[in-house]
Design goal:
The protein is α+β, with helices and mostly antiparallel strands. It folds into two domains: 2-34 and 166-241, Gyrase A, domain 2, CATH 3.30.1360.10; 38-160, DNA-directed RNA polymerase, insert domain (RNA Polymerase Alpha Subunit, Chain A, domain 2, Beta Complex). The protein has helices at 22-34, 55-63, 72-75, 79-85, 186-190, 218-222, 249-273, and strands at residues 2-9, 12-18, 38-49, 96-104, 110-114, 119-120, 133-138, 142-152, 163-176, 196-199, 202-205, 228-243. The strands form four sheets. The chain has a four-stranded antiparallel beta sheet. The chain has a four-stranded antiparallel beta sheet with strand order 3-8-4-6, with helices on one face. A hairpin with a 2-residue loop joins strand 1 (2-9) and strand 2 (12-18). Helix 1 (22-34) crosses helix 7 (249-273). The radius of gyration is 26 Å and the shape is flat.
Length: 278
Amino acid sequence: MKIRVLEKTPLSLKLYIEETPLHVLNSIRRAVLAEVPTMAIDYVIFIENSSAFYDEYIAHRLALIPLKSDDAHLRYKSPEECAEAGEKHMFSADCFAKLDLMSEGPEEGELTLYSRDLVPSDPNVKPVYDDIPIIKLIKGQRIRLEAFARLGRGKDHAKWSPVTIAAHKYTPQVSINYEICSNCLKCADACPRGVLVVSGGKVVVDENRVVDCNFCRLCESVCENRAVSVSYKENSYILNLEFTGALTPKNTLLTASDILIKKLEELEAKLRELGVLA
C-alpha cells in the first residue's frame, strides 16, 4: 500500500492510495464511519423547561453537538461494557460524562444559549465548537437540565460518527491521442475542473489537477475525433474524509485500523476453532 497526502487540514484529509484492493479500502472507510467510538449525549434529564421548545427537540439538538473524545476510550467503558452493565450502573462515572445547562430569559430582549454554555463534569469531554446555538429564552422562560454523554459508534447512530464525509473514488486517468487530435481546444474549454489546459499551443493534461477529475467526460463528448480518453487506474483510489472534530484525523484512522485488525484476528481465531484453518 502506498499513501500520499493530497490535502490536510484539522478537519479534513484527502489521501491518494495505491496498490490497494477496493474491498480493503472500503473496509477502512466503513470502520471510520461506523466502528470508531466517540462521545455524544445520549440521555437528557429535564429538571425545568418553560421554553418554547419541547424536551425531545432540545435533547435532539444536544445529541448532535460534537464532543471532544480523543482520549475518552481510555477513561470510559466501551459501549458494549456499559450496555452489559445495564440500568444497574446507569449514569455511572465510568460510563457517562455529565454536562449541565441552566439559565433563564432576560428582563428585556432574548437570550441565546450556545454549546459553550454547557458546563462539563469532565473538562476533556466538552463541545468541539463554542458557537452552536441550542435555544433562545425570553423573560419568564427558564431551562435546567443534565445531559449525559457516553461512548458510542456510528453504526448505532450518526451522532457518534467521527466523520461527516467518508468517500472514495477511482483515481482518474486522462490521456490524449495526439495522432488524431485536431487541436481544436474544445476539450480544454469544456473541462469544468481545469484538468485539460492549453500549453505551447496544444492541449495537455495538468498532472497536478488530474485527481480533481469527476469523470463527467465532457471532454470526450466535445471531441469529434475521440482523441481524449477518460479512464481510471486499477487499485488506485482517492479517499476523502471530513471530520466532526471529536477526534483528530490521526486518532480516527489509527483507531479504525486497530478495530479492523482485531476483527480479522477474531475471525481467524474462530475459523481455527471450527477447524476451517489448520
